[in-house]
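W.,

You were right to be curious about this one. When I first looked at the sequence I had no strong expectations either way, so I just let the prediction run and decided to look at it fresh. Below is the sequence, 124 residues in total, followed by the output.
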Amino acid sequence: MARLTRGELKVMRVLWEHGALKPSELQARHPEPIGNSALRSHLATLLEKGCVTRRLVGKAYFYKATTPKRSAFRSMLGELVDAYCGGSMENLVMNIIRSEKLSEDDLIALRRLADQDDEGGGKR
């Protein structure tokens, strides 16, 4: 999946949350003020990247996310792990545990989650 910029990601979040929207509806729901030309630029780029589709209804185009939120998350997480953790998911988790100063209850919940994954034969 193509990497998303912050601006593109904000547009995608609105589409993931609200479904297909016209640009004016997207602009109204955007988390911060965004100009029409900036929004249209993001939409054009997202179309090129294959992250959204558009459909003409009457005189208006409706834009819809085609990239699932989970897929985008996994892709960005992979980039984060590669760039900052030497490709090691374990390093990422250890850094989160250390930097976020997780509570004992949080650590117990993580242990349970890891144990459940082991029992289910899931991938670590």
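Here's what jumped out at me. The mean pLDDT is 91. And, maybe more interesting for your project: The radius of gyration is 19 Å.

Coffee later to discuss?

I.
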